[in-house]
Design goal:
Distance between the termini: 60 Å
Number of helices: 1
Strand order of the largest sheet: 1-2
Structural class: alpha+beta
Number of strands: 4
Helix content: 10-25%
Strand content: 15-25%
Order of helices and strands: HEEEE
Radius of gyration: 23 Å
Shape: rod-shaped
Length: 60
């Protein structure tokens, strides 16, 4: 089997890993109830999407 000829430097290793960082979740406030939700998705607390009632609100 082949083996690396030279040790990968810390700089090269870190440059390779530059795209591995996690990005924060893009949460927005619901226009109806104000709860945080993901964009372009149904609000899990009130059941509305784009100003229309789509699903009955979850009873908690």
């Amino acid at each position: 089997m082949q083996a690396p000829k030279r040790k990968t430097s810390k700089s090269k290793r870190d440059m390779r890993r530059s795209h591995h960082a996690l990005t924060p979740v893009n949460a927005v406030a619901c226009s109806n109830c104000g709860e945080l939700k993901l964009r372009h998705t149904l609000c899990p607390s009130c059941g509305q999407y784009r100003g229309k009632q789509v699903v009955e609100a979850s009873a908690e």
